[in-house]
Amino acid sequence: MLTPAMLRPMEPADYAELATLFAGTIRHHGPEHYTPAQVEAWAAGAHHSHFVQELAFSHGWVAWHGEQRVGFVTLDDSGHLGLLYVAATKVRGGIGQALLERAMLQARELGMSRLEVEASAFSLGLFLKLGFTLIGVERVERSGVAFERHRLERLL
Asked: Quick check: pTM over 0.90?
């Protein structure tokens, strides 16, 4: 299990490796739930300016295993969890839960009463396990490719 000491605030020096982690995780686990076109459109987001903006303008934490970044999460000031990704080889080892619990703690410290997130098919179970409630399914488009994602909320 990940200890709190293995989490630290995100820094600009993390961004390039987090983009690689993001794309790698999507390409590894995405085919379990998504078409090849969906996987590639989603993974390509690592090279989009919105990805770096999400990292730069949110509260963020990075999970470490030794000298490796193995996960990250972002939370904006409105209570939106934008990104939660764990390295493909570390999924289902408690890292995602530790990151999400850290973000929820920060949200409470900032006086937030509600969190919201749009979850993929492969992260949906973690959010439900940690008390998030499904409030809808929506269709979005990335690079001309349609996706369904799950909208969830959690009252704090």
From this structure: yes
